[in-house]
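R.M. (postdoc): so does anyone remember the format we settled on? I'll just put the structure tokens first.
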């Protein structure tokens, strides 16, 4: 985003507006954190602001400041639709194609509102009037910090804003261990702590909230873990029956894909999760080094994301999806063994 665009957005926000903030289906920590950080920032300037998510999100995010004000489109479709229709400005955060907004896609595409995209995924679409896209960023939350910085308002970051941004950076960087965590990211984190983010409390709220059923489900994931040493690859499967037997709730499998990646010499890790309600297999992919799971997922599983972290889906059965996955690997043997 250049200075000319920044000035236009600053002018756009100079008087109170009806503003909608939307994020992608199945929101994660970065989606909720960035949405609520921007929500608090815009409320500071007396805008009328509504955060709308396509659907629900994990319970470990339901403490983030302002979360109770979020409208879930699938639960309150009419209210959400009315707010979208009335919007002067729509911020789309942590996604770069309207298809990622699920059932909200059509109504968003039909509005005449001014769109502002803030996102760190690759290959952004062109629907937005103003686009702030940077795939080198650790998270959309870090981009929200820099967005506020570009508008000259870092002094307006409150403890609630700082906490929300910290949540997204922490969760999207795997607690700051991914390569996208730069020295600039750490400087941003330091400033957020200075501005009121309680890093210890945030970590406890996100990661220290296990239920017995989730821990037992984690045991099933370990049991189902398979390693393909000839491809330096590991994968996990979880069937709908296994999820149901352990009282699965949204977010319970967060981070499970990293179990495989923690194994010595494994460069590529995948988890396949059956979702009979949506009739799909949800796929999460992670990698180390130069192997792009973004390209792998785009080419084979209708997905995408980042170089070392991506998602995908399959309309095949769980067993057929795994069989397809294994059949693809020989084409990548050389790069996975480099």
């Amino acid at each position: 985003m250049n200075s000319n665009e920044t000035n236009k957005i600053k002018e756009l926000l100079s008087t109170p507006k009806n503003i909608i903030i939307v994020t992608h289906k199945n929101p994660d920590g970065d989606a909720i954190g960035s949405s609520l950080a921007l929500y608090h920032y815009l409320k500071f300037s007396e805008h009328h602001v509504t955060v709308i998510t396509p659907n629900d999100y994990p319970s470990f995010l339901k403490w983030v400041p302002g979360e109770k004000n979020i409208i879930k489109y699938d639960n309150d479709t009419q209210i959400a639709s009315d707010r979208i229709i009335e919007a002067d400005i729509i911020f789309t955060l942590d996604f770069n194609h309207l298809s990622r907004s699920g059932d909200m896609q059509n109504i968003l595409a039909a509005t005449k509102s001014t769109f502002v995209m803030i996102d760190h995924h690759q290959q952004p679409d062109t629907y937005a009037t103003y686009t702030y896209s940077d795939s080198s960023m650790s998270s959309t939350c870090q981009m929200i910090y820099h967005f506020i910085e570009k508008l000259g308002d870092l002094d307006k970051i409150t403890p609630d804003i700082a906490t929300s941004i910290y949540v997204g950076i922490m969760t999207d960087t795997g607690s700051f261990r991914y390569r996208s965590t730069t020295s600039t990211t750490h400087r941003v984190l330091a400033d957020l702590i200075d501005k009121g983010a309680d890093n210890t409390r945030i970590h406890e709220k996100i990661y220290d909230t296990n239920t017995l059923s989730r821990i037992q489900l984690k045991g099933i994931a370990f049991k189902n873990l398979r390693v393909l040493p000839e491809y330096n690859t590991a994968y996990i499967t979880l069937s709908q029956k296994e999820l149901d037997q352990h009282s699965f709730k949204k977010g319970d499998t967060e981070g499970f894909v990293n179990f495989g990646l923690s194994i010595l010499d494994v460069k590529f890790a995948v988890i396949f999760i059956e979702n009979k309600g949506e009739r799909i297999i949800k796929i999460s992919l992670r990698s180390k080094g130069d192997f792009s799971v973004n390209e792998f997922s785009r080419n084979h599983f209708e997905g995408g994301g980042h170089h070392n972290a991506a998602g995908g889906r399959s309309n095949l059965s769980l067993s057929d999806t795994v069989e397809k996955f294994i059949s693809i690997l020989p084409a990548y043997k050389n790069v996975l063994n480099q």
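R.M.: ...and that's the designed sequence above, right after the tokens. Also worth knowing: The chain has a mean pLDDT of 95. Residues 21 and 51 are 5 Å apart (CA to CA).
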